[in-house]
Automatic annotation (TrEMBL):
Compartment(s) where it occurs, according to its Swiss-Prot or TrEMBL record: Cell membrane
Listed InterPro entries: ABC_Gly_betaine_transp_sub-bd
Name of this protein: Glycine/betaine ABC transporter
Primary location: membrane
Gene3D superfamilies: Dipeptide-binding Protein, Domain 3, Glycine betaine-binding periplasmic protein, domain 2
PROSITE patterns hit by this protein: PROKAR_LIPOPROTEIN
Length: 298
């Protein structure tokens, strides 16, 4: 009887030990233990296919020999995935850019890019179709004068994405609060010209939603009827090159949209930067313990 009891006790103890061992292993995996790739689930969360940052990320995957899948989504879906991961303290790597309101809301960092795949600091330029200066000289001069700081853009983005304001409402609020800056963009004594309606194209990045809506309402102050058209990057550049759009204020140069710009540069007027200090790259929450794109291979 004692032998049977001892055998049963040993068998029970063995079962508990096995459960503890395998339970810990499972728990560790659930907690994100393992290789860096496993922690990131082998995925880079991207935005709309065809965007300049997506092309750069495809190049980065090749240059750094990354065994990762680049997941197409949208700007909004990327931020939603980032938010969900941060709330659960999970590892996530996304295609990111600044200015962007997500850097004001969460502690994030760019992964170092030693091979320079994503380029250096960028600017966002204003591009006008040929002939706009003659057709709408007041609009052309306003677009040429348009220039603001990353903090200005981020204020509009925060109102839209965090305070849940409509883009038009957020743009009008910023204009009211920055009348001195806006006055510098508005030409005096310049005739409107024969063009009554201005069509602006833009990509649906949070940054470009903010800038394009602000420009829309300043142009409306000059008496123009303004139409906005959200399209992907390729369509935006094809449209401005063909004259289907009168202007864009969403040209990320010289890297992100550089290929697109080269195809149309002789067909458009480059009015120069409307914002400087922009950047793109791979972004992770600050609690992620790697610091370089090269570390993704660990």
């Amino acid at each position: 009887m004692f032998r049977q009891y001892r055998a049963l006790t040993l068998a029970t103890l063995l079962v508990f030990l096995m459960a503890a061992v395998f339970g810990c292993t499972t728990g560790e995996k659930e907690a994100g233990q393992g290789t860096v790739k496993e922690k990131f689930n082998g995925e880079i969360i991207g935005i709309e296919p065809g965007a300049g940052i997506m092309k750069a990320t495809e190049k980065a995957i090749k240059e750094y020999s990354l065994d990762y899948t680049l997941k197409d989504s949208s700007s909004a879906a990327m931020v939603a995935a980032l938010k969900s991961a941060i709330e659960s303290k999970k590892w996530i790597v996304v295609t990111g850019w600044t200015p962007h309101w997500m850097f004001a809301r969460w502690d994030l960092k760019y992964l170092e890019d030693p091979k320079g795949v994503y380029g250096g600091e960028e600017h966002i330029a204003t591009i006008a179709r040929k002939g706009l200066q003659k057709d709408a000289p007041a609009a052309y001069q306003m677009l040429d004068a348009f220039y603001w700081q990353p903090s200005d853009m981020e204020a509009v983005m925060l109102d839209i994405n965090v305070n849940k304001m409509d883009p038009d409402e957020a743009a009008q609020k910023w204009i009211r609060e920055n009348e001195d800056k806006v006055k510098k963009w508005i030409p005096e004594g310049v005739p409107k010209g024969n063009l009554k309606k201005i069509k602006l194209g833009y990509v649906e990045w949070d940054s470009e939603i903010a800038s394009t809506h602000v420009v829309k309402h300043v142009l409306m102050k000059l008496g123009y009827d303004v139409e906005l058209k959200a399209v992907d990057a390729g369509v935006m550049w094809t449209g401005i090159g063909a004259g289907h759009f009168d202007a864009i204020v969403a040209a990320w140069l010289p890297y992100t949209h550089g290929d697109y710009y080269q195809q149309v540069k002789d067909k458009v007027d480059n009015l120069g930067p409307n914002l400087e200090g922009a950047k793109i790259g791979l972004v992770v929450p600050d609690y992620v313990t790697i610091n370089s794109i090269e570390d993704l291979n660990k």
